[in-house]
From TrEMBL:
Organism: Chitinophaga arvensicola
Pfam families with a match to the protein in the record: HTH_18 (PF12833)
Name under which the protein is recorded: AraC-type DNA-binding protein
A molecular function (GO) term: DNA-binding transcription factor activity
Keyword Mitochondrion: no
Lineage of origin: Bacteria, Pseudomonadati, Bacteroidota, Chitinophagia, Chitinophagales
Residue span(s) of domain HTH araC/xylS-type: 211-309
The entry's keywords: DNA-binding, Transcription, Transcription regulation
Cell cycle as UniProt keyword: no
Length: 310
């Protein structure tokens, strides 16, 4: 079943119709929501261990928040245009509407991940204030962090406490789970702010420019497709932006914009039955032929061929 929100044809999954995309069939693990009795489930939050996780997830979008925690092994995660290699102690974060994918999960990988709706923490923080309270959930923030042994142990302990509340389902468990989730995010925020303060003091403007550019592309790629648009937002010349992006990434700024469009197109082709002509319109191409030509140049195959093999 394909669940679509907001823009017709663009897949953005809701929490109660997402499990089939990230859990293997026949999953026998017993942590968190895996095989949890329906009577014990709490609306608005789900937590899992990596046992029973599909070998690859996405690219796709969701309308909820995600925290991924790696305790051992490694996994590749892509959030928008930003790519990260999870290793022991790595956390990454996604927020509603963000393109997300996970792949290359090593055999020895173990960790946890938490999915929750924006209103789940409403008693503690308004849903529209989550990105303000926890900046790693904001476009302008850094969507991953590497924790030291003590804080990562604390985060893992909070995951265990959430699981215990789910399994035992004692009176007040829903409120306890909200509190543990908030405390987990607060633990991460303390390390995050400390690390960002250090980065702000030591990074040069050019090394800051590229991640900021990537975030802006992830946010505006459907409406802004010229390098000059992003240069204006960043207060630099198009030539300077192109040169800096090329020096640091090996690719041009235009390549980054194209990559984001391709990710979006792949998600629509893989998870919906939307006609190619309609996808062309949604992605603001002048005509379907232009979209077909662009997709083939970027991927080496036509949109229909990609859909058939996805």
């Amino acid at each position: 079943m394909k669940t679509k929100l907001n823009k017709p044809g663009i897949p953005q999954y809701v929490l109660n119709d997402f499990r089939h995309l990230h859990r293997q069939e026949g999953d026998t693990s017993g942590f968190g929501y895996s095989n949890l009795d329906v009577s014990k489930r709490i609306a608005g939050i789900e937590i899992y261990s990596s046992e029973g996780l599909r070998p690859a997830v996405g690219p796709l979008k969701s309308d909820f928040y995600r925290v991924s925690i790696t305790l051992s092994g490694s996994v590749d995660v892509q959030l928008g245009l930003e790519q990260f290699k999870h290793r022991p102690g790595t956390l990454s974060f996604t927020f509603p509407g963000q393109v997300f994918s996970k792949s290359n999960i090593a055999a020895d990988t173990f960790g946890y991940y938490i999915l929750f709706n924006g209103d789940f923490l409403q008693e503690l923080i308004p849903g529209d204030m989550i990105a303000t309270e926890f900046p790693f959930f904001d476009y302008a923030g850094v969507p991953f962090i590497q924790l030291e042994p003590a804080p990562i142990a604390a985060v893992a302990d909070f995951c265990g406490k959430i699981n215990e509340e789910l399994q035992q389902h004692r009176p007040g468990c829903e409120k306890a789970i909200r509190m543990y989730l908030y405390l987990l995010l607060l633990e991460v925020k303390r390390s995050y702010l400390s690390q960002q303060l250090h980065l702000t003091a030591t990074d040069t403007r050019n090394t800051y420019l590229v991640p900021r550019f990537k975030k802006l592309v992830s946010q505006h790629f459907l409406s802004k497709k010229r390098v000059a648009d992003y240069a204006a937002l960043l207060g630099v010349t198009p030539n300077h932006l192109n040169r800096t992006v090329k020096e640091i990434t090996g690719h041009t700024a235009s390549d980054a914009i194209s990559q984001m469009l391709v990710q979006e197109a792949k998600a629509i082709l893989r998870y919906t039955d939307t006609a190619v002509s309609e996808i062309s319109f949604q992605l603001n191409f002048s005509d379907p032929a232009g979209f077909n030509r662009f997709f083939r140049e970027q991927t080496g195959q036509t949109p229909l061929a990609f859909r058939k093999n996805a």
